[in-house]
Amino acid sequence: MKPRLFNLVALIFLCGTTAYAQQQSSFTSVALQPTTAYLQHNGKACRMVRLVFHGGLSYTGGQLYISFNGLQDSLPIAAAAAGLKDYEIPLPGTPVTKDEQVYVCYTSGGQQYTARCIVSPARTDWKVYVMPHSHVDVGYTNVQSKVLAIHMNNIDEAIKIAERSAAYPAEARFKWNTEAIWVVEHYLALSDEAKQRRFWDAVKKGWINLDGGYGNINTSATSAAQLMHMFYTGVRLGKEHGITVNSMFQGDVPGASWGLAAQSDITGVHYFLSAPNASDRIGSADQWRDKPFYWQSPSGGQKLLFWQSSPYSIGYQIKGDKIPNFFTIEDPKPHYTGHPEENFLDPFLFDYLAKLEQKGFPYNMTLLTWAMSDNAPIDPELPEAVKAWNERYASPKLIITSAKQFLQDFESANKDKIPLVAGDYTEFWTDGIASAARETGINRNASDRLQQAGAIWALRAKPNYPAADFDTAWTNIIMFNEHTWGAYNSVSHPEDPKVISQWDYKKAFALNGAAQTNALLTKSEAGEATATSAVDVFNTLSQRRTELVVVPASLSSAGDLVKDHKGNKIPSQRLSSGELAFRVQDIPPFSKQRFTIQKGDAYITDKATVKGNTLQNGIYTITLDEKTGNITRLQKKGSTINLADSAGLNQYTYLPGDSAEKIQYAANARIQVKEKGPLVVSLLVNATAPGTNGLQQEIKLVAGIDRVELINTIDKQAIGDKESVHFVFPFHVPGAQVRYSIPWGSITAEADQLPWTNRNWYTQQRWVDVSNKDMGVTWSSPDAPLFEIGRYPTAGLIGGLHFSPLWRSFTEQQPVIASWVMNNLWHTNFRRDQQGPATFRYYLQVHKAYDVVAANQYGLANHQPLVATAATGAMEESLFFSINAPTVYVENISPARDGKGVLLQLVNAAATPAQVSLQPKDHSGLNIHQSNLLEEDGNELGSTFTMPAKGIMMIRVTTR
Q: Which residue, of 66, 97, 119, is where some domain finishes?
């Protein structure tokens, strides 16, 4: 634009003498708003400000006079029958390098209106990537079948829109992000061959993008094996069709497990785009918005490019409330307004970019997601809106994108600028899983047993490994951890048939996964019966074990005497339940041993005793308070220190309304002996407990076993009012630090957490450790994943908690662990109440100085107990090689899908490199290769290789 040269005095004179307009307009005043945008004007990029009409709309035209940076210009504003809310003004001259004031005078209807604003320097080359998607909630807005139908229809619509916009400028050509492989897998399964070909053709053209995640999963609540498997289907589909799937998108969920970075080389997923909820129970997670970083793994050897964008609901906030409410429509379809450029990114985008500029944002590109709601139809007008935008604005330039395209473009342009960050992005939404405590426990236990089934298949070298059946079970287990647990009105209208239906669908993931797991475990153990009155015991871990085995009465009717495969007598005891318990000694890693049950009395060696309220097993002395049943004495042999705080361990607490001020406790404890010894002793505590029909707690010791076992069973009453249930463990460990296990490793609370992440509660995989420099306790629960550090940092966290001051910014280290077993604090999605029995097991081990290797071994043993079954096959079976690596554990082992050897996922628990040595058990040699999620052979390893500190590795082992 060639500016007209007026001086300011002349401009004011012209403004003051303009003839009266024929008609008075409705607005009463004007204001100027600076923006970061540049208009396409007369073939040039001109900085833009917005003239905003106040008090009404502008209907009659007028003349605008502009003075800016020593230059003047004027332009007419045409009359508008519908009225104008604002008008975009191109400023004269080149981009400013310092703050400059702009002055305008607008004459209309015989009136003159003036305004000023400050224009600061702004980028001329902004690129804003717009990612179209529909947020995938597996339920929430409607029953799951309806939800799935919407998402599958979106794929068909996306292909049509991409075809329609194929000749548009590249930036405006449509791309669709399926968000979750759950949608894609069902779409392909229900499509004929022609439709499948059309789909894959669209993927290869870039019209459809596949991100690797199966769903929007609570990743901190998944095991390492689950976390790995959640990418398997997506990566496999990509490989089969020549597509690289190396990105993940997670919508709604604030936070993610650090384990994602640890496994990135194995899965091949190196890009992570997060678009969390806008404010609902997210704490301070929004502080990570537009702060991209390379997420470095605990070992330092892997990294994942992480970007948290603005909330996924931006599109819905801007346009979604101007179109039909898809929540209220049973079978919604894409909605055409006929005016694509309306209700679009202006003026939102101008304010958003201005804030980035003010914060010194170092990049010239960012991303916004574009969804019309949860489980909503596609926005069919996006290509036209983007095309019109780019024709009008020189900057910011809009680009319709996928998560993968954006992150790859960003990395390509800024690789050397991206900071490297390490730490756990501790999740916020895992609290909701305690709204279904029973099913959560079922799912966690199924996950452990499924790993054991794979391990037994591997160590027995059974042929015909049913990989597809294992995949189905893993998918069900993973999908129970998907972030959608119910309906949007699950709390307000719990009896709504849709609410009930959606919970039944969700619950089925856990129940089906458990049933499939049990079937696979039985199949792994099966074989030709070769002995009567005998049982086989499997060790599915890479560590030697001395533990208790319990077999049902139906397998132990021959007698109470147990002998090992060499004929040695084994300590045993007939339990009050009729089951037979015996202690196995030093069973080797990944092996099976046989034990015979014979007529005769149980063999006795060292003894455990119970007297009054005290239990002893030669290692521990446990005393219960006679009134409360709490453990008031926890003392290990060789120490004079009682590690139980005066309040007592395993204390039941009930918070009505989640109010710490109104806390209630169990009462009227009745203590009796359940198991009398000499191998197993236990005390049974029955008590009245608020919120329940009763509480039962069993405290158990086994002679010669370094473990305290607690079994707490609640018969929960259905209570719709807000509540929380805890079992509290205040340990007497002065100066303690709290460490806990996460997928693929362990961290120290606070020290290993990223800023602006959850400090109110935590999610443990297998163990929590409370230790000072001299002593400590490792605490483990297979059933209850949530815990708090200290007393009730979750108190008062009811409802949406938008920007609540109750969110903690720092975790004070203290030796108090509160197992948060039940709550109903959410206002949506999760269950309003739960009813019936739920069992929570806890295991305690007192130790000297903290040892991360020992903590992991203890946690693994508690989650994967020795497996006893009727005897079949050979008397002894074991893996065809041994592993020597004191600090390394095998996270998962299974037969290879192609039948060639076994796959192992290894974890070095130590903070120093570890040497791993694999040796065959016969005279054959071994082939050892690094492997990946698709079980593809990589670098060949020798029989001895080194793992980095805190590193993980996947390997394939075969015989030569």
A: 119
